[in-house]
Specification:
By secondary structure, the protein is α/β, with parallel strands linked by helices. Helix content is about 35%, strand content about 15%. The chain has one domain (about 1-200): TIM Barrel, CATH 3.20.20.380. The model has no long low-confidence stretch (mean pLDDT about 95).
Amino acid sequence: MVLEACVETFEEALKAESLGADRIELCDDLSVGGITPSYELLDSVLKQLKIPVMVMIRPRGGNFVYTTSEIKVMKQSIDVCKTLNVTGVVFGILDKHNHIDMDDTRFLAEYASPLEITFHKAIDDTPDPVRSAEMLIAIKGISRILTSGGKDTALEGVENINEMSKVTAGHLKILAAGRITNENLREISGILDVEEFHGRKIVGHLQC
């Protein structure tokens, strides 16, 4: 079982590691679902943590439909991540119909190579997360999908999450999310056919 803690401060990152997180996703401003963290935060976290660090690549809150200039900003953020030798990056790009933007996703995945890539919860905004997960198999470089199965919580999305795991088996890992905490992890892990779990409180309360 892999536990990924979602954090937005240096202190939270350190605490997550001390509480047993296997990996962190580092973001800024989780009030809008997370955006790219600052260079200063990223640099300080990487100097202290021994566990893998995945970095959110998202230039703003709101939807996941990005302009050409926003894609350029995302590329620049990936450049910073490569310079600092992060484990990987986390992003998701949709088109105006909320389907996966295959062209821009493929472009950014190729650009991010050889970093690990997680396609994030933008997939839950698509009309059919299961079909969307299957489509992502075709994009080289993506290794993981963060999802609550298109629902508000992992418990509500159990059926879709398990189906996503089934259709991507052998190609992509499914990272389950959606109000998973250290208190309900045992229950949820018993009904989900996945090995990776993500959450703000996945290893306990982090805010200092």
